[in-house]
């Protein structure tokens, strides 16, 4: 059986105004995240799916992120199956940080990737 390749994008290629869906858990988010990202932990994803459909309602592409790309790949696959334009961010937050992309925390501490 052949499967279509999972749509993905390099961290450095994510548009500055792109919709980022962060599926990491709360402690990972608190340590550091992309400003303006939509945070829905993978463990809450199905229950909060409506928030995702609202965020991408205008036909925006969802750039899905986790720490290294495994969880976000699963969520990306699910979103694509639901007819949503979604891409997995290759390498996740590790690649984001390596690419020098900005990260923030809600408490003003230095952002790190857990």
List strands and helices in order, with pairings.
Blueprint: E1 8-10, E2 19-22, H1 26-31, E3 38-39, H2 49-55, E4 62-65, H3 70-81, E5 86-90, H4 92-98
Parallel strand pairs: 1-5, 2-3, 2-4, 4-5
Count of individual helical segments: 4
Q: What's the total number of strands?
A: 5
Average residue-wise pLDDT: 93
**Helix-strand pattern:** EEHEHEHEH
Which class best fits the helix and strand makeup? alpha/beta
Instruction: Sum up the overall morphology in one term.
Output: globular
Rounded to the nearest angstrom, the radius of gyration is 13 Å
Q: Low-confidence spans: pLDDT under 50, at least 5 residues? A: none
Report on the architecture of this protein.
There is one protein chain. This protein has 114 residues and is of the alpha/beta class. The protein has four helices and five strands, in the order ββαβαβαβα. The chain has a five-stranded parallel β-sheet with strand order 1-5-4-2-3. α1 (26-31) links the parallel β2 (19-22) and β3.
Task: Please give a handful of descriptors for the protein shown.
alpha/beta, 5 strands, 4 helices, 114 residues, five-stranded parallel β-sheet
């Amino acid at each position: 059986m052949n499967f279509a390749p999972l749509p993905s994008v390099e961290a450095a290629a994510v548009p500055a105004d792109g919709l980022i869906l962060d599926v990491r858990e709360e402690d990972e988010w608190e340590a550091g995240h992309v400003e303006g990202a939509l945070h829905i932990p993978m463990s809450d994803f199905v229950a909060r799916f409506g928030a995702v459909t609202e965020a991408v309602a205008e036909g925006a592409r969802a750039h899905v992120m986790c720490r290294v790309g495994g969880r976000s790949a699963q969520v990306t696959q699910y979103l694509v199956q639901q007819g949503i334009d979604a891409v997995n961010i290759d390498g996740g937050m590790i690649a984001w940080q390596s690419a020098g992309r900005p990260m923030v925390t809600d408490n003003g501490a230095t952002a790190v990737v857990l």
